[in-house]
UniProtKB/TrEMBL annotation:
Signal peptide residues on this chain, from the entry's feature table: none
Alphabetical UniProt keywords: Cell membrane, Cobalamin biosynthesis, Membrane, Transmembrane, Transmembrane helix
Gene of this entry: cobD
Pathway recorded for this protein: Cofactor biosynthesis; adenosylcobalamin biosynthesis
Function (record text): Converts cobyric acid to cobinamide by the addition of aminopropanol on the F carboxylic group.
Top-level taxon of origin: Bacteria
Mode of membrane association: Multi-pass membrane protein
Protein name: Cobalamin biosynthesis protein CobD
Protein location: Cell membrane
Family: Belongs to the CobD/CbiB family.
């Protein structure tokens, strides 16, 4: 079976598996990778970019090499190749967990239990929950749903279409490393530099595709494109900017503004501010539905692109 068809069948099965099963409560492959990366960090950590680059190369390179080895081992059996691609896709995408956490916070807010919503928020993003009221929590959830649609779904599918199983696991490895060491704390400002920059590079195509599909699937296409064009470049993240701006325009809301991370206050630009309104509680569900639509559209685009390039190469 051709590699493009293996990806098409496997990625569809993996995304369906995520929809039906979600992430396992214990023994998730991404969590196993995270523990291994933390062990490597304990050995290598120095307050130096070079040692951080070595950490990135060892961890991400090992994930890609493992993906290549198991792909080679399964190559003689089309069924095994499809099953491997499906399992890898299921392991690296996280759309169902994203929706579950967002909706759980939404239910807590709907019940008026702001403390319960604050307790759940760290499962979704790195904001300081005690600094947020109910409206601030709702806005944080919508922003996190937007950004993680790219990081946890679309970006993985893009790299799976490009590189098969090694692309899938390599993208998730880099994204996980960025979450672990890529933030601008005193400990990781230098050591995490390589992981953060590599995550920016690998996240670039998925973020643009996410923004484009959010505009296509949203209720206000022109608003999404307008917000993307006007506001994305003002965001400090080169990839979160287009995604959050497009979601803001598509949903007709305002995102961004003053945020608190780890006790550090950040004054970010307002996204979608020209025509958007303040985020309301019901926008959490709207953002989740838009995220779902974007994920399935991304599967279609990635499969179509892979099949097209496969036919041209044959």
């Amino acid at each position: 079976m051709r590699a493009d068809r293996v990806f098409a069948y496997g990625a569809a099965a993996g995304l369906l598996g995520d929809l039906l099963l979600g992430d396992p409560r214990q023994g998730h492959p991404v969590a196993v990778f995270g523990r291994a990366a933390a062990a490597v960090e304990r050995v290598l950590w120095r307050d130096h970019r070079g040692w951080g680059a070595l950490h990135t190369a060892v961890c991400a390179g090992s994930a890609v090499a493992l993906g290549a080895l198991v792909t080679r081992a399964a190559r003689t059996s089309p069924a095994a190749s499809v099953a491997l691609t499906g399992a890898a896709t299921w392991a690296v995408v996280g759309g169902t967990s994203l929706a579950r956490e967002a909706r759980g916070i939404g239910r807590a807010l709907e019940a008026g239990d702001v403390e319960a919503a604050r307790a759940r928020l760290p499962h979704l993003c790195g904001r300081d929950p005690q600094a947020l009221d109910a409206d601030g929590i709702a806005r944080a959830v919508v922003e996190s749903v937007a950004e993680n649609t790219s990081d946890a779904v679309v970006g993985a599918l893009v790299w799976g279409a490009v590189g098969g199983v090694p692309g899938l696991v390599g993208f998730r490895a880099v994204n996980t490393l960025d979450a672990m060491v890529g933030h601008k704390s005193a400990k990781y400002r230098r050591y995490g530099w390589a992981s953060a920059r590599l995550d920016d590079v690998m996240g670039w195509p998925g973020a643009r595709l996410t923004a484009l599909l959010a505009a296509a699937a949203g209720s206000d296409r022109r608003g999404a494109l307008r917000a993307w064009r006007a506001d994305a470049a003002r965001h400090p993240s080169p990839n979160a900017g287009p995604v959050e701006a497009a979601f803001a325009g598509a949903l007709g809301v305002r995102l961004g503004g003053t945020l608190s991370y780890g006790g550090r206050i950040e004054h970010r630009p307002v996204l979608g501010g020209d025509a958007g309104r303040a985020v309301a509680l019901h926008d959490i569900e709207r953002a989740v539905r838009l995220s779902r639509q974007v994920g399935w559209l991304a599967l279609g685009v990635c499969v179509a692109g892979r099949l097209l390039t496969g036919r041209r190469a044959s």
